[in-house]
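A reminder from the course coordinator: this example appears on the midterm review sheet, so study it carefully.

Given structure:
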């Protein structure tokens, strides 16, 4: 496996970074998770834009242009001969000393891993996922805005541990004042009164690329849509619930906190969106030749 590291493609065993890297010492950095389908990178520009937005939010200057970053992603995919891939792009503050001071980190570290994607089992898509509400609350937007896809994922990891302890794969994260934000690695949508609803990202959620794609599909399909603050009771009472994310795509949720959603089967609107989403992954994207 070849890894892109600071401008070079190197073998996996040579792809090492300093123990003084502030990405490791403090979680000081940003990342992206991107996917390619049959040699088409899905929404690459949007992912790169979000990476640079996240970096700007933490005052980290990425030492290459967006165009060069896109080239680097495509080169890494080619070097590994991957048609269907998971792409992890990471930019850290770089190597510094034992202290928070980001000024000590002179050169950001940039690396890109491309690998096979590990997917949720098929049954989850057919029968729906059972999830819980996490005990762990979402970070305050005013403390560390969850819109920033930073290397500080402990808030999400603690909620993921809540899910794992309950024998589940995902967990809904609520804000400090009981609004639904998102899940640990996925955005959440409901269908209620025939309309598609998702919480606004400002409540404490990532502006998911899949979320955005689903909103676009709903508009195209004539499904009413609104961004609205919702509480967990709204989710229990919804006619359909599903999650969106680069890894999961669109996955139906049929059980929450041991409560069945509607009849406990993936909903019709969810299934239509899943189908339409599959279609756009086949045609939309940045092409590369192996
Ligand atoms: N919320 C959070 C907190 C995320 O981390 C999403 C929503 C969905 O966003 P996208 O842009 O992917 O639609 C994410 C993304 C992984 C993995 O390896 C996690 C994500 C994406 C890809 C891989 O666990 N999370």
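Designed residues:
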């Amino acid at each position: 496996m070849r890894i892109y590291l600071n401008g070079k493609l190197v073998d996996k065993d040579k792809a090492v970074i300093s123990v003084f890297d502030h990405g490791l010492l403090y979680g000081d950095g940003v990342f992206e998770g991107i996917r390619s389908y049959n040699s088409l990178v899905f929404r690459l520009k949007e992912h790169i834009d979000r990476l640079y937005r996240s970096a700007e939010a933490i005052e980290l200057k990425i030492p290459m242009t967006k165009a060069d970053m896109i080239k680097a992603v495509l080169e890494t995919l080619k070097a590994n001969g991957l048609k269907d891939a998971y792409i992890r792009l990471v930019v850290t503050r770089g190597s510094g000393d034992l202290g928070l001071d980001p000024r000590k980190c002179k050169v950001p570290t940039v690396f890109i891993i491309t690998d096979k994607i590990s997917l949720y089992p098929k049954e989850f898509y057919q029968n729906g996922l059972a999830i819980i509400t996490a005990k762990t609350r979402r970070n305050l937007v005013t403390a560390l805005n969850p819109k920033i896809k930073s290397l500080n994922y402990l808030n999400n990891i603690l909620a993921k541990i809540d899910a794992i302890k309950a024998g589940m794969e995902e967990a809904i994260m609520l804000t400090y004042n009981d609004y639904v934000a998102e899940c640990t690695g996925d955005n959440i949508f409901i269908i209620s009164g025939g309309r598609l609803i998702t919480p606004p990202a400002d409540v404490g959620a990532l502006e998911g690329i899949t979320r955005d794609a689903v909103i676009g599909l709903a508009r195209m399909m004539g499904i009413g849509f609104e961004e609205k603050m919702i509480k967990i009771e709204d989710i229990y009472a919804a006619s359909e619930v599903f999650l969106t994310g680069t890894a999961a795509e669109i996955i139906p949720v049929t059980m929450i906190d041991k409560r069945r959603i509607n009849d406990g089967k993936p909903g019709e609107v969810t299934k239509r969106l899943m189908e339409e989403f599959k279609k756009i992954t086949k045609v939309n994207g940045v092409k590369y030749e192996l």
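The chain has a mean pLDDT of 97. The longest helix spans residues 268-283.
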